[in-house]
Design goal:
The chain is α+β, with helices and mostly antiparallel strands and about 280 residues long. Helices cover about 35% and strands about 10% of the residues. The protein has ten helices and nine strands. The strands form two sheets. Strands 3, 4, 5, 6, 8 and 9 form a six-stranded mixed sheet that branches. The chain has a three-stranded antiparallel sheet with strand order 1-2-7. Helix 7 packs antiparallel against helix 8, helix 8 packs parallel to helix 10 and helix 9 packs antiparallel against helix 10. About 5% of the residues have low confidence.
Length: about 280
């Protein structure tokens, strides 16, 4: 059996928005359907965990997603990278508008979805190298960003609180990211969000530096978590490349920290992988 409303949304997302979608756990199931490493239980967050390796499974083929949806009720995830999206994930209502106003700009009308805590504001990626999940100048404002290497839960899905992810206006197109937003995301985070490792690390010790990077992730506030996980992963990549740190040790420590602050397993894996991709 396929679940009609989810199939309808999946088809609409693929055909209307050109989205690459995949299945995600549904909070109505008795147990989490999300894929996890052996021996790793669900962290208690329902309705967001991908049911497989989402970077591999995301598709714009209706037959493939229909087959996946035949396994029971599922939410939908959207692969922002493959879809060419840059999504502003606003957990603090009004935060994105306030930032735009603070620099004399405004948020253009674009496809937007209300969520349990705020909204997802969709844009097309700018030309050239696509943006990832870094928040840049938006750090510390209750805003996350999902681009290449990231995903969002799509419209038609149900949050664990029972709230439906709902488009504000279904006919609105996804418009290109405005230049001021691209510039903000490519700029360095405000100084106050750049963690100092001095209070966490043992001087000269790679393990101490790793502990400091992990501590910075564990101290992260909503809107900063993914950005700080990426920052910490980049610092680990530098130590791995220099031969001072074991790759698997770093991945395990960073994964545990990312999931401890509430990031989903798929998001954690993608963020760490994007930072370590240049390290053999």
């Amino acid at each position: 059996m396929r679940w009609p409303s989810t199939v309808t949304w999946a088809t609409w997302l693929q055909q209307r928005l050109g989205a690459f979608v995949f299945t995600v756990d549904h909070p109505g199931l008795p147990r989490c359907a999300g894929a996890r490493r052996p021996g790793q239980p669900c962290d208690g967050t329902r309705g967001k965990h991908p049911c497989g390796r989402w970077t591999r499974d995301s598709t714009n083929d209706p037959d493939m997603i229909w087959a996946a949806l035949s396994r029971g009720p599922r939410n939908l995830g959207i692969d922002c990278g493959k879809s060419g999206y840059l999504v502003i994930d606003e957990d603090t209502p009004g935060a994105f508008d306030r930032y735009a106003q603070s620099i004399g700009q405004f948020v253009p009308v674009t496809f937007t979805v209300t969520t349990a805590k705020g909204r997802h504001v969709y844009f097309r990626q700018p030309p050239g190298t696509p943006l990832g999940n870094g928040t840049g100048a938006l750090s510390g404002r209750g805003i996350d960003v999902r681009g290449r290497g990231g995903y969002v839960v799509g419209p038609g899905s149900i949050h664990q609180t029972g709230i439906l992810y709902t488009p504000v206006e279904i006919t609105t197109a996804v418009v290109p990211a405005p230049g001021w937003l691209v510039a903000a995301l490519r700029s360095a985070p405000p100084e106050r969000t750049r963690p100092s490792l001095a209070r966490h690390q043992d001087q000269g010790s790679s393990q101490g530096r790793l502990r400091g990077a992990v501590a910075a992730v564990l101290d992260a506030q909503p809107g900063e978590r993914n950005n700080l996980l990426h920052w910490a992963s980049c610092r680990a990549a530098e130590m791995i490349a220099a031969g001072h740190l074991d790759r698997n040790t770093a991945i395990d420590a960073l994964t545990e920290a990312g999931e401890a602050v509430g990031l989903g397993p798929g998001e954690v894996q993608a963020t760490i992988a994007s930072a370590l991709k240049a390290v053999p």
